[in-house]
Amino acid sequence: MRAVPSPVPTKPPMRFSVGNYLVRVRAQVMMRDDSTGLWVPMGGGGLSNVSVRKRVIQPDLDDSKHEYLIYGKRISDQTVVLSCTIKKDFEYYKVMPTFHHWKTGDMKFGLTFQTAADARAFDNGVCMAFDDLVEEPFQCEPKHANAYT
Predict the structure, then answer these.
(1) How far apart are CA 60 and CA 78, in angstroms?
(2) Are 52 and 129 in contact (CB under 8 A)?
(3) Domains along the chain?
(4) Which part of the chain is the WH1 domain (predicted)?
Protein backbone atom coordinates (compact mmCIF):
# COMPACT_ATOMS: atom_id res chain seq x y z
CA MET A 1 0.00 0.00 0.00
CA ARG A 2 1.25 3.48 -0.80
CA ALA A 3 1.67 6.27 1.71
CA VAL A 4 -1.36 8.51 2.07
CA PRO A 5 -0.20 12.10 2.61
CA SER A 6 -2.68 14.53 4.08
CA PRO A 7 -2.32 18.30 4.21
CA VAL A 8 -2.14 19.91 7.62
CA PRO A 9 -5.27 22.01 8.16
CA THR A 10 -4.68 25.75 8.43
CA LYS A 11 -6.51 25.82 11.77
CA PRO A 12 -5.96 22.73 13.92
CA PRO A 13 -9.08 20.86 14.95
CA MET A 14 -10.13 21.03 18.57
CA ARG A 15 -9.39 17.38 19.24
CA PHE A 16 -7.28 14.51 18.03
CA SER A 17 -9.06 13.04 15.00
CA VAL A 18 -8.49 10.12 12.65
CA GLY A 19 -7.77 12.29 9.61
CA ASN A 20 -5.46 14.78 11.32
CA TYR A 21 -2.17 13.36 10.07
CA LEU A 22 0.72 14.48 7.91
CA VAL A 23 1.41 10.99 6.61
CA ARG A 24 0.18 7.45 7.17
CA VAL A 25 1.97 4.26 6.10
CA ARG A 26 2.00 0.57 6.92
CA ALA A 27 5.06 -0.69 8.76
CA GLN A 28 6.33 -3.07 11.43
CA VAL A 29 6.95 -1.07 14.63
CA MET A 30 10.23 -1.93 16.36
CA MET A 31 11.93 -1.00 19.62
CA ARG A 32 15.61 -1.19 20.44
CA ASP A 33 16.48 -3.71 23.15
CA ASP A 34 19.74 -2.33 24.52
CA SER A 35 20.37 -5.46 26.59
CA THR A 36 20.69 -7.58 23.43
CA GLY A 37 21.55 -4.86 20.91
CA LEU A 38 18.67 -6.00 18.69
CA TRP A 39 15.56 -4.42 17.24
CA VAL A 40 12.45 -6.28 18.42
CA PRO A 41 8.82 -5.97 17.25
CA MET A 42 6.64 -3.93 19.60
CA GLY A 43 3.49 -5.41 21.06
CA GLY A 44 4.14 -8.88 19.71
CA GLY A 45 4.65 -7.80 16.12
CA GLY A 46 2.37 -7.49 13.13
CA LEU A 47 1.84 -4.83 10.52
CA SER A 48 0.59 -1.45 11.80
CA ASN A 49 -0.85 1.74 10.38
CA VAL A 50 1.71 4.34 11.48
CA SER A 51 1.11 8.05 11.16
CA VAL A 52 2.62 11.39 12.08
CA ARG A 53 -0.25 13.27 13.71
CA LYS A 54 -0.78 16.82 14.86
CA ARG A 55 -2.59 17.33 18.17
CA VAL A 56 -3.73 20.55 19.84
CA ILE A 57 -2.42 20.68 23.42
CA GLN A 58 -4.70 23.29 25.04
CA PRO A 59 -7.60 24.04 22.69
CA ASP A 60 -9.40 26.34 25.14
CA LEU A 61 -6.39 28.58 25.68
CA ASP A 62 -4.58 28.79 22.35
CA ASP A 63 -5.26 26.81 19.17
CA SER A 64 -1.68 27.41 18.02
CA LYS A 65 -0.20 25.24 20.80
CA HIS A 66 0.22 21.79 19.36
CA GLU A 67 2.48 18.78 19.27
CA TYR A 68 3.20 15.98 16.85
CA LEU A 69 2.97 12.27 17.59
CA ILE A 70 4.20 9.21 15.80
CA TYR A 71 1.26 6.89 16.35
CA GLY A 72 0.98 3.23 15.42
CA LYS A 73 -2.04 0.93 15.60
CA ARG A 74 -1.72 -2.76 14.75
CA ILE A 75 -3.97 -3.61 11.83
CA SER A 76 -5.03 -7.07 12.99
CA ASP A 77 -6.60 -6.04 16.32
CA GLN A 78 -6.41 -2.21 16.45
CA THR A 79 -4.06 -2.30 19.46
CA VAL A 80 -2.02 0.90 19.88
CA VAL A 81 1.62 -0.21 19.70
CA LEU A 82 3.29 3.20 19.44
CA SER A 83 2.56 6.70 20.68
CA CYS A 84 5.70 8.82 20.65
CA THR A 85 5.76 12.61 20.92
CA ILE A 86 8.25 14.34 18.62
CA LYS A 87 10.30 16.64 20.85
CA LYS A 88 13.26 18.92 20.25
CA ASP A 89 15.72 16.17 21.28
CA PHE A 90 14.39 13.99 18.43
CA GLU A 91 17.10 12.27 16.35
CA TYR A 92 16.00 10.52 13.14
CA TYR A 93 18.12 8.02 11.21
CA LYS A 94 17.56 6.61 7.72
CA VAL A 95 19.86 3.61 7.78
CA MET A 96 18.29 1.59 4.95
CA PRO A 97 15.68 2.38 2.29
CA THR A 98 13.04 0.43 4.25
CA PHE A 99 14.25 0.81 7.85
CA HIS A 100 14.36 4.11 9.72
CA HIS A 101 14.71 4.66 13.44
CA TRP A 102 14.74 7.48 15.93
CA LYS A 103 15.73 8.36 19.43
CA THR A 104 13.90 10.66 21.81
CA GLY A 105 14.94 10.81 25.44
CA ASP A 106 16.12 7.32 26.37
CA MET A 107 13.73 5.57 23.98
CA LYS A 108 14.68 4.15 20.57
CA PHE A 109 11.99 3.18 18.06
CA GLY A 110 12.17 1.94 14.49
CA LEU A 111 9.95 1.18 11.52
CA THR A 112 10.40 -1.51 8.90
CA PHE A 113 8.44 -0.21 5.92
CA GLN A 114 6.83 -2.33 3.23
CA THR A 115 8.29 -0.14 0.47
CA ALA A 116 10.99 2.48 0.06
CA ALA A 117 8.27 4.88 -1.14
CA ASP A 118 6.47 4.50 2.20
CA ALA A 119 9.75 5.20 4.00
CA ARG A 120 10.35 8.37 1.96
CA ALA A 121 6.79 9.57 2.58
CA PHE A 122 7.14 8.95 6.32
CA ASP A 123 10.49 10.77 6.38
CA ASN A 124 8.87 13.78 4.69
CA GLY A 125 6.09 13.81 7.30
CA VAL A 126 8.60 13.67 10.15
CA CYS A 127 10.59 16.53 8.61
CA MET A 128 7.46 18.69 8.23
CA ALA A 129 6.50 18.08 11.85
CA PHE A 130 9.95 18.83 13.21
CA ASP A 131 10.29 21.96 11.04
CA ASP A 132 7.02 23.25 12.47
CA LEU A 133 8.05 22.51 16.06
CA VAL A 134 11.48 24.12 16.01
CA GLU A 135 10.60 26.86 13.49
CA GLU A 136 13.79 26.20 11.57
CA PRO A 137 14.61 23.62 8.90
CA PHE A 138 15.19 20.10 10.22
CA GLN A 139 18.27 18.39 8.81
CA CYS A 140 16.51 15.70 6.80
CA GLU A 141 19.66 14.18 5.37
CA PRO A 142 20.47 10.57 6.21
CA LYS A 143 22.43 10.17 9.42
CA HIS A 144 24.77 7.29 9.95
CA ALA A 145 23.90 5.68 13.25
CA ASN A 146 26.59 3.12 13.90
CA ALA A 147 25.84 3.22 17.62
CA TYR A 148 22.20 2.26 17.05
CA THR A 149 22.23 -0.10 14.07
Answers:
(1) 30
(2) yes
(3) 21-134 (2.30.29.30)
(4) 14-133
